[in-house]
Amino acid sequence: MNRPLSVALLLVLLAHLSLAIISGAAAKVELTHFMYDAHGVKWQEYLEVMAERFENSTGIAVEVVLSSGGFDGFRSKLLSMVAGGVAPDVTDAHPMLGAPLIAQGMFEDLRPYVKRDHFPIERIPPVAVEGVTTPDGQLWGMPVSVYPVVTYFNADLFAQHGLQNPRDLGEQWTWDTLYSSAKHLTKDVDGDGVPETFGVTLLRSRWEMQVHQAGGQLYDRVVYPTQSQFNSPEVLRAVEFLRGCYADGIATDNHATYHIYRGNTGFAVVDGPGSIGPYYQNLGFSWDIALQPKGPANRAARINPDGFQIVTHSKNKDAAWQWIRFLTGNADSQMTMAEITGRLPSLKEAMISYPKIGTLQLPDNWQAMIETAFDPTGYAAYVVPNATKIDSVVNPIMAQIWAGQIAPATGLEQIHDLLPALLE
Question: How confident is the model at residue 117 (pLDDT cuts 50, 70, 90)?
Answer without folding.
Answer: very high
